[in-house]
Amino acid sequence: MATSRRQVTTQTEGGARAEPASAQTQSGAAQTKRTRRAPRTRAGRGFGRQAATKNTNGQKLARGLAWFSIGLGLAECLAPRAVAKIAGTEGKHTGLIRLFGLREIASGVGIFMQGERPAEAVWARVAGDALDIAALAAAFASPKSSKGRVAFAAANVLAVTALDALCARQLSGNETGGTQVKKSIIINGTPGELYKFWHDFENLPTFMKHLESVRITGEGRSHWVAKAPAGSQVEWDAEITEDRPNELIAWRSVEGADVDNSGSVTFEAAPGGRGTIVKVEVEYNPPGGVIGSAVAKLFGEEPGQQISEDLRCLKQVIEVGEVIVSDGTFWDNGLLTQRAARPASSEEISQTKGAA
Amino acid sequence: MRANCWYGKQDVRVEQVPDPKILNRRDAIVQISSTAICGSDLHLYNHFIPTMEKGDILGHEFMGEIVEVGSDVKNRKVGDRVVVSFPISCGKCFFCKQEMYSLCENSNPNAWMAEKLFGHSPCGIYGYSHLTGGFAGGQAEYARVPFADVGTLKVPDTLSDEQVVFLSDIFPTGYMGAEMCDIKPGDTIAVWGCGPVGQFSIRSAFLLGAERVIAIDRFPERLAMAAASGAETINYEEVNTYDALMELTGGRGPDSCIDDVGLEAHGGHGIVYAYDRAKQMLGAESDRPIALREAIMACRNGGTVSVMGVYGGFIDKFPMGSFMNRSLKMRTGQCHVQHYWGKLLEHIERGDIDPSFVITHRMSLDDAPQGFDTFLNKEDDCIKVVLKP
Lengths: 356, 389
Fold this sequence. Notes:
The complex is a heterodimer of chains A (about 350) and B (about 400).
Chain A: H1 2-13, H2 28-31, H3 34-37, H4 55-78, H5 80-87, H6 94-113, H7 119-141, H8 147-172, E1 179-187, H9 191-199, E2 211-218, E3 221-227, E4 233-244, E5 248-253, E6 261-269, E7 276-284, H10 289-298, H11 303-320, H12 346-350
Antiparallel strand pairs in A: 1-7, 2-3, 3-4, 4-5, 5-6, 6-7
Helix pairs in contact in A: 4-5, 4-6, 4-8, 5-6, 6-7, 7-8, 7-10
Chain B: E1 2-8, E2 11-16, E3 28-37, H1 39-45, E4 56-57, E5 61-69, E6 81-84, E7 87-88, H2 94-97, H3 111-118, E8 124-125, E9 142-145, H4 148-151, E10 152-154, H5 161-164, H6 170-179, E11 188-192, H7 196-207, E12 212-217, H8 220-228, E13 232-235, H9 241-248, E14 256-259, H10 270-282, H11 290-298, E15 304-307, H12 320-325, E16 329-332, H13 337-350, E17 361-364, H14 368-376, E18 385-388
Parallel strand pairs in B: 11-12, 11-14, 12-13, 14-15, 15-16, 17-18
Antiparallel strand pairs in B: 1-2, 1-4, 3-5, 3-9, 3-18, 5-6, 6-10, 7-8
């Protein structure tokens, strides 16, 4: 709750128009959630900037981390043997260390190049830290390494990881450690048509790849089952917290969810009669917390991308009637899960969700 | 079925792969009767386009007979003889409705990859890397054709495969290059690159009323083909292109310039070529824009630079000063094939043009690897290879 109050304040300061939710909410149950839903701007116009006051610290820290990145990267590139010695790993991995050095330099430069709020670039550092930790874990297992030095190096990397994660969280403007995602897409059709389609939650799995099923369980309540990374499944019950016909639907998970989450979708007529701008905002606590989120990002299962892909599939369902598959994609769009662009065998096709 | 698959830089292999199946309701399966190797396939062959996967079936210029249709394909039936457009287009989105088919918003399931590289995604394309969808290509016995109701053109039996197969790509592409020049009576058009697309730009420029066309290349057989179309020619290995163009146009420059070369250009001064080649090898520049730079510098004040040659990423030393100070216009794009092919089929039927003139090599699909090698090295005066499955 503290988070949402802060959001209200900053959004109002930022000039975005915040409205009390009570005027729009339909049910009494939703009214008790008013503080949580209050920050919604009118018809979702514009994406508010949260926690602007926190960013100066985050920005300073980011710049420090960027210089650290570039320094360490240069050392790894120019003197990989010395770095290997300090880290206690074997001397023959100089090529790998140089590569890691290039990654460090790139992430440092990335932070400077991303401008005022380099949240993504700092998240990339967190993902890089995960690689370092994996490499050190491998080194620790090797009989030739110096265990003490490897452990010391790992302790240092973990400390930096914590700093990176803290910085990234500050820059992401989210004190709860949850992940916030905002995406939008323009689709042919009126806000009313799109609202109606979305409002039947049982339609959602037709375009949301990670959703196995949504079942309506009662007045404004539904049960959701989703695929999670590494083949696992998560489930939760959700309730509608706000429902403005042809304009907005908001929901949140109720207690006992595998993944706490809340979200909203708004439908706004695009100018010039060019369809509807559909905006989705989702906030959730990913399994594995911030590190898990960063690693997932590295492997193409980042939630922002998932939601972008889901919205693209929604556009296909509305505009052409179904989700389009290619030989390379089927239903898994990750870079690492592309098939070669050649016809799949019958067995492969029968295993995919999108099979005709 | 047999198909020509990509395995790495200058490594393609004809392999046995599963037959394609209907996956979406507007798909059709086409039994391919003729397929071709495109100049842009050479960019994949040389691995200049990222996101290729080992085993990808290549090819985006093909035609054949429909052997199966999905439940939502209403205007085509089994037995129709069709040419397939290389852009995969839904026909329903914002861009398709404006007949800008190569910008289709719904046909690239990997649009996110293209967005990372290009900012926004173009349409899906057959056999053309995963950032344009990861669709199996048409250098095969069969192909799945998504949105077959929009992406196929029925062709009359009175015309041979060789006369109509290039409606899939290079004829409309060359034509669009010329059309974007907005040709007025009396115009002089310069065309960089006399490969197959360049040849069609030259003929299309005349079809659209150009007074003079000047063709630029370094291979005598290609320049000879251009001259046979009525173009004046410049061999840039013998003369300086800019000087020659100024001499031919009284110093004003061509009214419009078409870049039909793209990212693997040669020529320019030896030092400039070496500079771009070195930067390309180091990854500091993905494309060599030598033809594009020349086209900009040579174009007359207020003229149009039309870019049909393929670029994949970033270029260096773009002559922005020349471009800005002289009121130049630039037009670009993957061809909106379906917008043009009906009109161009009429030109073929009337006998205004017989597109088979570009074909120099006819081979079996099984010889595709040799075809790529011959085409890449321009051996045996190779200009265009057609494969028969």
